[in-house]
Each structure stands twice: as C-alpha cells, then as structure tokens.
Amino acid sequence: MEHFLFFISSLSLLSLIYLLSKIIKNESRSNPPGPLGLPFIGNLHQIDQSSFHTSLWQLSKTYGPIISLRFGFVPTIVVSSATLAKEVLKTQDAIFCSRPPLIGNQKFSYDGLDVAFSPYNEKWREMRKIFTTHLVSPYMIQSSRYIREDEVSRAMDKIKTLALSSKNVNLSKIAKSVTSTIMMRVSFGKRYQDEEERKKVLQLLNKLQETIMNLYVSDIWPGLPFVSLVDRFMGKMNMLEECFQGFDMFYQQLIDEHLNPPNIKSHKEKEDIIDILLRVMKDKLFSLTHKHIKAMLMNVLVAGIDISAAIVIWSMTLLMKNPKVMKKAQEEVRIAIGNKGKVDEDDLSSLTYMKAVIKETMRLYPPSPLLLRETLKDTTLHGYKIKEKTVVHLNAFAIGRDLEVWANPNDFLPERFLGSDIDFKGNDFELIPFGAGRRICPGVLMGVVMVELLLANLLYLYDWGLSNDIRKEDIDLDALPGITMLKRNELCLLARVYF
C-alpha cells in the first residue's frame, strides 16, 4: 500500500512539473523574444541605466525589433523598428496611448494633471485640448515671434563680443540661455534681467532631469510592502520632494503676481501663458485649478527649453565634425539672406538644406530617444501577446539607425532628406523624435521654429572653428542620461564674424 501511495504521489508530482513546464513554454512562446532574466530583479542587471536607449538598441541587434523584458515585477517591451512603431503609434494607438504612473512623473505632473506624463483618460484629453487650443496654436506661435527674434538677436550680439575678443563661445550655455529666456517670456510675461534668478530655474530643470531618471524601487516592485521606505532611506524621495517644492514655490509666486497685476513690473509682455490659463480658469470653460496651471508650466519649460537647446547643440556638433556639410549649410543661408544682416522667421521657409540638417540631426540624436507608453488592455503585436499595463519603450534612437530603412545609417548625410517627403510631424514612423499619434508632443511647431531661427543665425553671421589643440575628431558625441538627450560635455567653439 505504501509503495502504491508513493507511486501515485510521484506520478502526480511529475505530472504537475510537466504541466507547469508546458505552461511556461507556451507563455514564453507567446511573449516577444528577449534575454533571460533573473528571479525578482528580471533584466535589471543587463541594462546600463546611464545609457538606457543604447543598451536597448544593442539588445535589439540580438533579439530583433520587438523585445520582451522584465524590470523587477514590471513587464516591458521595446520596439525598435519603424514598421512596428507605426503599428503601435497609429494602427493600435488607442491601446498603446497611456503612460505608466512612475514616481517622478506623477510628482511633477501633480498626480496626472499635465499633458506629458499623465495616463490616458478624460482628464488628459481635456488638458490636451487646452494646450493645443490656447498655448501652442498658430496664433500663439505668431504672436510670440517678436520674442524669439529679439532673444536670438541679443545672443548674436553676445557672440560678436566674444568673437571680437577671440574668446571661446560656449554654445551649450548660449543655446540654453536663448531657449530659456524665450520660454520664460512666453510663459511668464517678463524677461529675467537678473542672471542669477534665471540660473536658479535652469538648475531646477537640470535637477528635474536627474530626479525623473532615478531608478525608484517603488517603480520596479510596485505593491511590495514597505518598498517606498527603501526609496526614502536612499534619499531619493527627499531629492524628488526638494526639486518639486522648488518648482512649486516658483510657479505659485508667478501665479500670485499675475493675480495681482500691480505687482508685475513695467516690463510685462503681452498676454502670456499664465494669463491665458488664468483666463480659462476664470471663464470656467474647463475645471482648472492652480495645480493644473503648474503642471502645464512644467511641460512648457521642460519641452521648450531642453529639447530645443539640445537640437541646436547636436546640430552644431555634427556640423563641426562634418566641415563640408557646414560649408554647404552656410552657403545656402548666406545666399538666401544676402546682406540683410540677420535671419528672421520669414526667411526660414527657403532654407531647405538647413532643414535637412536638422532632420538628420534628430534622426541620429532624437531629443527624446525613448518614447514611453503603457497598454490600456490586452492586445497582439507582431504575433505576440501583450498584456494590459505592459510598459512600452519605442526606441527612436534605434529606429533612426534601422538598416532596413536608412542607407549608411551611422553617417551624417542631410542630403538623404532632400527631395524626400519624410518629416517629423508624426506621419513618418522612421523619424519620430517628437513621437506620433495621440501622445505626439503638442509643441512641435513652436519648438522647431525656435531651433531653425537660432541655427540659421549662427550659420549666417559667423564662421566657426576649434581651438588650436583640438581636432574635429576630438569632439565627443556622449549624451547625458535624462528624459531629453543632452550633450554630456559643453560645445565650446571659436567664432569669427562673417557679417
């Protein structure tokens, strides 16, 4: 009898093991391919957090255009081809259009009150409508033209002073100074004469990049008891709270100034973004609060300052490393503008080659290298089952280097865009630096005109060179970790006045 019971028990155990192995095998077949992870941590040990997008790109070379990963308890897929990006961002956009509720994103979006970071829901659709209708409309872009032209002109004067004294020009600082001052004037209605005051805002933005990219234990093992205490013990929550409070106090002060017009100094601009949002709140067309306004300002500053500055600096970096392309771009601008002495926004439409330079720059160094999504329900992609609440990374960096789409993808060749209809407005999925579909960056047009105006004037007014001890091969292409791909080391050049 004992032998019989042992036999039955053994048979049952073997059957259970067989059934579990079949379930696991079938499950793995239904998931996209990917590297084998470890218990509890998943694939965390296989990713370089300081260069997340390039780590994922290298994995795609081994496992293909769709990869399955697990970061702690969080199921994740990575999409690295234009064909699958189209499926995600167009065909199944309604399923892939949400955002995961990450700790940093939730904090800076005031718990999902913004456009960039909040999950997809009715509240998000309402905020998106406000953003596109009131803040980045064609009228708003045109009405702020004088600000962009004024700030670019001031920057060119600053460069001229440095050029005449043969001093190095820190283009990274100048680009960020221009974009930040433009966005502050558009948003807050005043020009920050005090350099220290403006620097405080830029320091907060730099800190924001760092805190959002922090690896929070609560994001990796959500729902695990006491896991938030680990983030607090490591000091991450204090850093996050300190940065958030800095922004919150800054925004509240600005809102208070706008609610009490006599407190606003005489150099107040025309109606600015805070004015518009307060008017919308007063008219009760939408259920806006001060928290909504602060969340929207966060989006405007992060996108308008960092992204635009990054594109200009990567463009100038690549032009310096490719002198023939630089010469061709300068010749186009100088022939088109003649002896006028400056480039204004009416001239930009004729600068076809320069626009190709910008597209090629964004192909190689997209300002947002990873586009973050989360699935709203179960679906199928490329024959694989994708579950609800799966985190999705669309690797714009890898897509820009896809051998199936781009010839010689590692070469800087703006000519590939001449005579091409490929654009970055969300309809061509081989070039998606600003995303596509419902979550495409709503401020694309405002950001791009700022980039074009600044770059055109840099090319028109100055010839650019390197210090005697530096060769073009020495210019690095390293990027900082962050939601925006910023150049790690500042670009410092010598300028010679052309006009």
Q: Can you walk through the features of this model?
A:
Pathway: Secondary metabolite biosynthesis; terpenoid biosynthesis. The chain has one domain: Orthogonal Bundle (Cytochrome p450), CATH 1.10.630.10. It is 53% helix and 8% strand. It is built from 18 helices and 9 strands. The strands form 3 sheets. The protein has a 4-stranded mixed β-sheet. It has a 3-stranded antiparallel β-sheet with strand order 3-9-8. It has a two-stranded antiparallel ribbon with strand order 5-6. Helix 9 packs across helix 12. The radius of gyration is 25 Å and the shape is globular. The N terminus is likely disordered.
Order of helices and strands: HHEEHHHHHEHHHHHHHHHEEEEHHEE
* Main pleated sheet: 4 strands, mixed
Rounded to the nearest angstrom, the distance between the terminal CA atoms is 103 Å
What is the CATH fold-level name?
Answer: Cytochrome p450
Tell me the CATH architecture. Orthogonal Bundle
Radius of gyration: 25 Å
Chain-averaged pLDDT: 91
